[in-house]
Design goal:
This protein is α/β, with parallel strands linked by helices. The chain has twelve helices and eleven strands. It binds 6-O-phosphono-beta-D-fructofuranose. 6-O-phosphono-beta-D-fructofuranose (F6P) binds next to loops.
Length: about 325
Protein backbone atom coordinates (compact mmCIF):
# COMPACT_ATOMS: atom_id res chain seq x y z
CA UNK A 1 0.00 0.00 0.00
CA UNK A 2 1.51 3.34 -1.08
CA UNK A 3 -1.29 5.67 -2.00
CA UNK A 4 -4.77 5.80 -0.45
CA UNK A 5 -7.87 7.96 -0.87
CA UNK A 6 -10.63 8.94 1.52
CA UNK A 7 -14.19 10.09 0.82
CA UNK A 8 -17.30 11.03 2.79
CA UNK A 9 -20.68 9.94 1.49
CA UNK A 10 -24.40 10.21 2.31
CA UNK A 11 -25.68 12.51 5.05
CA UNK A 12 -22.95 14.58 6.71
CA UNK A 13 -22.37 13.69 10.36
CA UNK A 14 -20.53 15.67 13.07
CA UNK A 15 -17.13 14.01 13.43
CA UNK A 16 -16.57 13.21 9.75
CA UNK A 17 -13.78 15.81 9.65
CA UNK A 18 -12.08 14.24 12.66
CA UNK A 19 -12.16 10.90 10.81
CA UNK A 20 -10.69 12.45 7.62
CA UNK A 21 -7.93 14.02 9.72
CA UNK A 22 -7.14 10.69 11.38
CA UNK A 23 -7.04 8.83 8.04
CA UNK A 24 -4.72 11.45 6.51
CA UNK A 25 -2.33 11.69 9.44
CA UNK A 26 -2.20 7.94 10.15
CA UNK A 27 -1.60 7.29 6.43
CA UNK A 28 1.21 9.87 6.34
CA UNK A 29 2.76 8.32 9.46
CA UNK A 30 3.12 5.12 7.43
CA UNK A 31 4.88 6.98 4.63
CA UNK A 32 1.86 6.80 2.30
CA UNK A 33 0.38 9.49 0.04
CA UNK A 34 -3.21 10.36 0.93
CA UNK A 35 -5.78 11.83 -1.46
CA UNK A 36 -9.16 13.34 -0.62
CA UNK A 37 -12.13 12.79 -2.94
CA UNK A 38 -14.43 15.83 -3.26
CA UNK A 39 -18.20 15.24 -3.37
CA UNK A 40 -18.49 11.57 -2.34
CA UNK A 41 -18.97 8.81 -4.91
CA UNK A 42 -20.01 11.31 -7.59
CA UNK A 43 -16.67 13.07 -7.13
CA UNK A 44 -14.94 9.73 -7.48
CA UNK A 45 -16.72 9.07 -10.79
CA UNK A 46 -15.75 12.57 -11.96
CA UNK A 47 -12.10 12.12 -10.86
CA UNK A 48 -12.15 14.93 -8.27
CA UNK A 49 -9.16 13.73 -6.21
CA UNK A 50 -6.61 16.03 -4.57
CA UNK A 51 -3.59 15.25 -2.41
CA UNK A 52 -4.02 15.96 1.32
CA UNK A 53 -1.07 16.76 3.57
CA UNK A 54 -0.99 16.84 7.37
CA UNK A 55 -1.52 20.63 7.37
CA UNK A 56 -4.50 20.41 5.00
CA UNK A 57 -6.43 18.70 7.77
CA UNK A 58 -5.32 21.13 10.51
CA UNK A 59 -8.04 23.01 12.40
CA UNK A 60 -10.88 20.75 11.29
CA UNK A 61 -11.30 18.37 14.25
CA UNK A 62 -13.82 20.74 15.87
CA UNK A 63 -15.80 21.45 12.70
CA UNK A 64 -19.11 19.79 11.80
CA UNK A 65 -19.94 18.67 8.25
CA UNK A 66 -17.22 17.42 5.93
CA UNK A 67 -14.44 19.45 4.30
CA UNK A 68 -14.51 16.99 1.39
CA UNK A 69 -18.21 17.47 0.71
CA UNK A 70 -20.73 14.69 0.36
CA UNK A 71 -23.43 13.60 -2.08
CA UNK A 72 -26.06 10.96 -2.69
CA UNK A 73 -25.00 9.75 -6.15
CA UNK A 74 -27.59 7.98 -8.31
CA UNK A 75 -24.93 7.22 -10.95
CA UNK A 76 -22.76 5.31 -8.48
CA UNK A 77 -25.66 2.93 -7.81
CA UNK A 78 -25.25 1.66 -11.39
CA UNK A 79 -22.59 -0.84 -12.48
CA UNK A 80 -21.38 1.65 -15.12
CA UNK A 81 -20.89 4.33 -12.41
CA UNK A 82 -18.93 1.92 -10.22
CA UNK A 83 -16.64 1.01 -13.11
CA UNK A 84 -16.03 4.71 -13.84
CA UNK A 85 -15.16 5.21 -10.15
CA UNK A 86 -12.61 2.40 -10.24
CA UNK A 87 -11.16 3.88 -13.43
CA UNK A 88 -10.60 7.20 -11.58
CA UNK A 89 -8.94 5.39 -8.67
CA UNK A 90 -6.62 3.58 -11.08
CA UNK A 91 -5.80 6.80 -12.97
CA UNK A 92 -4.60 8.38 -9.70
CA UNK A 93 -2.68 5.21 -8.75
CA UNK A 94 -4.79 4.72 -5.60
CA UNK A 95 -4.37 1.29 -4.06
CA UNK A 96 -6.76 1.58 -1.10
CA UNK A 97 -9.96 3.55 -0.42
CA UNK A 98 -11.57 4.61 2.87
CA UNK A 99 -15.30 5.36 2.76
CA UNK A 100 -16.78 7.31 5.68
CA UNK A 101 -20.57 6.95 5.75
CA UNK A 102 -23.71 5.04 6.67
CA UNK A 103 -25.81 2.27 5.14
CA UNK A 104 -26.06 3.54 1.55
CA UNK A 105 -22.38 4.48 1.51
CA UNK A 106 -21.26 1.09 2.80
CA UNK A 107 -23.46 -0.63 0.22
CA UNK A 108 -21.32 1.36 -2.25
CA UNK A 109 -18.10 0.20 -0.53
CA UNK A 110 -19.30 -3.37 -0.78
CA UNK A 111 -19.93 -2.93 -4.51
CA UNK A 112 -16.34 -1.69 -4.99
CA UNK A 113 -15.07 -4.60 -2.92
CA UNK A 114 -17.02 -7.03 -5.11
CA UNK A 115 -15.34 -5.43 -8.14
CA UNK A 116 -12.03 -6.36 -6.47
CA UNK A 117 -10.98 -2.88 -5.27
CA UNK A 118 -9.35 -2.70 -1.78
CA UNK A 119 -11.80 -0.71 0.35
CA UNK A 120 -12.45 -0.16 4.06
CA UNK A 121 -15.56 1.54 5.48
CA UNK A 122 -15.87 3.76 8.56
CA UNK A 123 -19.22 3.72 10.42
CA UNK A 124 -20.69 7.21 10.26
CA UNK A 125 -24.35 8.25 10.36
CA UNK A 126 -26.43 10.17 12.88
CA UNK A 127 -29.12 7.46 12.58
CA UNK A 128 -27.02 4.77 14.33
CA UNK A 129 -28.63 2.16 12.11
CA UNK A 130 -25.46 0.54 10.79
CA UNK A 131 -24.75 -3.09 11.61
CA UNK A 132 -21.13 -3.61 12.70
CA UNK A 133 -20.79 -0.72 15.15
CA UNK A 134 -22.53 -0.17 18.48
CA UNK A 135 -22.34 3.55 17.86
CA UNK A 136 -21.57 5.50 14.69
CA UNK A 137 -19.87 8.86 14.14
CA UNK A 138 -22.27 11.78 14.65
CA UNK A 139 -24.89 10.08 16.81
CA UNK A 140 -23.78 11.50 20.14
CA UNK A 141 -23.62 15.09 18.87
CA UNK A 142 -26.98 14.81 17.05
CA UNK A 143 -28.51 13.34 20.19
CA UNK A 144 -27.29 16.23 22.30
CA UNK A 145 -28.71 18.73 19.79
CA UNK A 146 -32.12 16.99 19.97
CA UNK A 147 -31.86 16.93 23.74
CA UNK A 148 -31.21 20.64 23.97
CA UNK A 149 -34.34 21.26 21.88
CA UNK A 150 -36.39 18.95 24.10
CA UNK A 151 -35.16 20.67 27.27
CA UNK A 152 -36.15 24.07 25.85
CA UNK A 153 -39.55 22.90 24.64
CA UNK A 154 -40.21 21.37 28.05
CA UNK A 155 -39.91 24.81 29.61
CA UNK A 156 -42.57 26.21 27.26
CA UNK A 157 -44.70 23.08 27.64
CA UNK A 158 -44.71 23.53 31.43
CA UNK A 159 -45.39 27.25 31.22
CA UNK A 160 -48.46 26.76 29.01
CA UNK A 161 -49.68 23.30 30.05
CA UNK A 162 -49.28 22.35 26.40
CA UNK A 163 -48.28 19.06 24.87
CA UNK A 164 -45.33 19.11 22.51
CA UNK A 165 -44.51 16.70 19.75
CA UNK A 166 -40.91 16.72 18.55
CA UNK A 167 -39.92 14.87 15.41
CA UNK A 168 -36.28 13.86 15.20
CA UNK A 169 -34.34 12.33 12.30
CA UNK A 170 -33.98 8.61 11.73
CA UNK A 171 -35.12 7.33 8.36
CA UNK A 172 -35.82 3.73 9.33
CA UNK A 173 -34.49 3.69 12.82
CA UNK A 174 -35.82 4.95 16.14
CA UNK A 175 -32.48 5.20 17.96
CA UNK A 176 -32.31 9.02 18.09
CA UNK A 177 -35.98 9.29 19.09
CA UNK A 178 -35.75 6.65 21.79
CA UNK A 179 -32.51 7.92 23.32
CA UNK A 180 -33.54 11.57 23.25
CA UNK A 181 -36.90 10.62 24.82
CA UNK A 182 -35.07 8.68 27.52
CA UNK A 183 -32.50 11.40 28.20
CA UNK A 184 -35.08 14.21 27.91
CA UNK A 185 -37.63 12.59 30.22
CA UNK A 186 -40.33 12.55 27.52
CA UNK A 187 -43.72 10.94 28.14
CA UNK A 188 -43.61 8.82 24.99
CA UNK A 189 -41.36 7.79 22.09
CA UNK A 190 -42.88 6.75 18.78
CA UNK A 191 -40.39 4.69 16.76
CA UNK A 192 -40.59 2.49 13.66
CA UNK A 193 -39.47 -0.55 15.68
CA UNK A 194 -42.49 -0.23 17.99
CA UNK A 195 -45.33 1.77 16.53
CA UNK A 196 -47.88 3.25 18.95
CA UNK A 197 -51.32 4.16 17.53
CA UNK A 198 -52.32 7.86 17.91
CA UNK A 199 -55.08 7.04 20.43
CA UNK A 200 -52.52 5.35 22.68
CA UNK A 201 -50.16 8.35 22.44
CA UNK A 202 -53.08 10.64 23.38
CA UNK A 203 -53.96 8.40 26.33
CA UNK A 204 -50.34 8.49 27.58
CA UNK A 205 -50.36 12.29 27.47
CA UNK A 206 -53.72 12.51 29.23
CA UNK A 207 -52.45 10.19 31.97
CA UNK A 208 -49.36 12.37 32.38
CA UNK A 209 -51.56 15.42 33.02
CA UNK A 210 -53.72 13.38 35.40
CA UNK A 211 -50.60 12.43 37.37
CA UNK A 212 -50.02 16.14 37.85
CA UNK A 213 -47.31 16.73 35.25
CA UNK A 214 -47.00 20.27 33.97
CA UNK A 215 -45.68 19.17 30.59
CA UNK A 216 -46.26 16.38 28.13
CA UNK A 217 -43.63 15.60 25.52
CA UNK A 218 -43.68 13.01 22.75
CA UNK A 219 -40.59 12.32 20.64
CA UNK A 220 -41.31 10.84 17.23
CA UNK A 221 -38.87 9.33 14.73
CA UNK A 222 -39.37 10.70 11.22
CA UNK A 223 -39.41 7.10 9.95
CA UNK A 224 -42.35 6.06 12.17
CA UNK A 225 -45.60 5.25 10.35
CA UNK A 226 -47.37 7.57 12.79
CA UNK A 227 -44.96 10.46 12.23
CA UNK A 228 -45.49 14.06 13.38
CA UNK A 229 -47.90 14.84 10.54
CA UNK A 230 -50.13 11.81 11.23
CA UNK A 231 -50.15 12.32 14.99
CA UNK A 232 -50.86 16.03 14.65
CA UNK A 233 -53.80 15.27 12.34
CA UNK A 234 -55.28 12.97 15.00
CA UNK A 235 -54.74 15.46 17.81
CA UNK A 236 -56.32 18.34 15.87
CA UNK A 237 -59.37 16.19 15.03
CA UNK A 238 -59.85 15.18 18.68
CA UNK A 239 -58.68 18.41 20.30
CA UNK A 240 -61.93 19.22 22.16
CA UNK A 241 -62.34 15.74 23.60
CA UNK A 242 -58.67 15.49 24.65
CA UNK A 243 -58.75 18.86 26.35
CA UNK A 244 -55.22 20.04 25.65
CA UNK A 245 -53.29 21.84 22.93
CA UNK A 246 -50.52 20.21 20.94
CA UNK A 247 -47.65 21.98 19.20
CA UNK A 248 -45.32 20.31 16.71
CA UNK A 249 -41.61 20.93 16.17
CA UNK A 250 -39.73 19.12 13.41
CA UNK A 251 -36.00 19.34 14.12
CA UNK A 252 -34.86 18.08 10.69
CA UNK A 253 -31.37 18.92 9.48
CA UNK A 254 -30.62 21.12 12.53
CA UNK A 255 -29.51 17.85 14.15
CA UNK A 256 -26.82 17.14 11.56
CA UNK A 257 -24.78 20.31 11.36
CA UNK A 258 -23.44 20.74 14.90
CA UNK A 259 -19.82 20.89 15.95
CA UNK A 260 -18.81 17.40 17.11
CA UNK A 261 -18.60 16.82 20.86
CA UNK A 262 -15.71 15.05 22.58
CA UNK A 263 -17.25 11.60 22.14
CA UNK A 264 -17.59 11.94 18.35
CA UNK A 265 -14.13 13.46 17.93
CA UNK A 266 -12.52 10.60 19.82
CA UNK A 267 -14.62 7.89 18.15
CA UNK A 268 -13.88 9.36 14.70
CA UNK A 269 -10.16 9.61 15.44
CA UNK A 270 -10.04 5.97 16.56
CA UNK A 271 -12.07 4.71 13.60
CA UNK A 272 -10.02 6.77 11.12
CA UNK A 273 -6.77 5.33 12.44
CA UNK A 274 -8.38 1.87 12.59
CA UNK A 275 -9.31 2.04 8.90
CA UNK A 276 -5.73 2.82 7.89
CA UNK A 277 -4.45 -0.03 10.09
CA UNK A 278 -6.92 -2.40 8.39
CA UNK A 279 -5.61 -1.34 4.96
CA UNK A 280 -2.02 -1.79 6.19
CA UNK A 281 -2.85 -5.35 7.34
CA UNK A 282 -4.38 -6.07 3.94
CA UNK A 283 -7.79 -6.51 5.54
CA UNK A 284 -10.16 -5.26 2.83
CA UNK A 285 -13.94 -5.29 2.37
CA UNK A 286 -14.62 -4.55 6.04
CA UNK A 287 -16.35 -1.90 8.11
CA UNK A 288 -14.37 -0.38 10.97
CA UNK A 289 -16.64 0.23 13.94
CA UNK A 290 -16.73 0.15 17.73
CA UNK A 291 -18.13 -2.88 19.52
CA UNK A 292 -18.01 -3.20 23.34
CA UNK A 293 -15.55 -0.30 23.41
CA UNK A 294 -13.07 -1.96 21.03
CA UNK A 295 -12.24 -0.92 17.46
CA UNK A 296 -13.41 -3.83 15.33
CA UNK A 297 -13.78 -4.91 11.73
CA UNK A 298 -16.91 -6.57 10.31
CA UNK A 299 -17.10 -7.90 6.73
CA UNK A 300 -19.11 -5.52 4.52
CA UNK A 301 -21.07 -8.55 3.27
CA UNK A 302 -22.45 -8.89 6.84
CA UNK A 303 -22.95 -5.15 7.26
CA UNK A 304 -25.16 -4.85 4.17
CA UNK A 305 -27.19 -7.98 4.87
CA UNK A 306 -27.99 -7.38 8.55
CA UNK A 307 -30.23 -4.89 10.25
CA UNK A 308 -29.34 -3.18 13.51
CA UNK A 309 -32.23 -2.95 15.96
CA UNK A 310 -32.84 -0.74 18.97
CA UNK A 311 -32.45 -2.25 22.41
CA UNK A 312 -35.95 -3.26 23.58
CA UNK A 313 -34.83 -3.04 27.24
CA UNK A 314 -34.30 0.68 26.69
CA UNK A 315 -37.81 0.96 25.23
CA UNK A 316 -39.16 -0.60 28.45
CA UNK A 317 -36.98 1.67 30.59
CA UNK A 318 -38.28 4.77 28.82
CA UNK A 319 -41.85 3.58 29.50
CA UNK A 320 -41.17 2.97 33.20
CA UNK A 321 -39.46 6.32 33.73
CA UNK A 322 -41.91 8.58 31.89
O1 LIG B 1 -29.17 9.20 7.20
C1 LIG B 1 -29.07 10.40 7.88
C2 LIG B 1 -30.31 11.26 7.64
O2 LIG B 1 -30.13 12.47 8.32
C3 LIG B 1 -31.64 10.62 8.02
O3 LIG B 1 -31.90 10.72 9.40
C4 LIG B 1 -32.59 11.38 7.16
O4 LIG B 1 -33.76 10.64 6.91
C5 LIG B 1 -31.81 11.60 5.91
O5 LIG B 1 -30.45 11.55 6.27
C6 LIG B 1 -32.12 12.87 5.20
O6 LIG B 1 -31.41 12.90 4.00
P1 LIG B 1 -31.14 14.21 3.14
O7 LIG B 1 -30.20 15.07 3.91
O8 LIG B 1 -30.53 13.69 1.88
O9 LIG B 1 -32.45 14.87 2.96
Amino acid sequence: MRRIAVLTSGGDAPGMNAAIRAVVRTGISKGWDVFGVRGGYQGLIDGRLTPLGARDVGGIIQRGGTILGSARSAEFRTEAGQIKAIRSLNEFGIDGLVVIGGNGSQTGSYALHQHGFPVVGIASTIDNDLYGSDITIGVDTALNIALEAIDRLKITASSHQRAFLIEVMGRNCGYLALMSALAGGAEAAVIPEMEIPPEEVAETLQQAYQRGKAHAIVVVAEGAKNNAEKLNEYFQQHRERLGFDLRVTILGHIQRGGNPGAFDRILASRLGAGAVEALARGEFGVLVGQIDGDITTTPLSEVVSNKKTVDMDLVKLAQILD
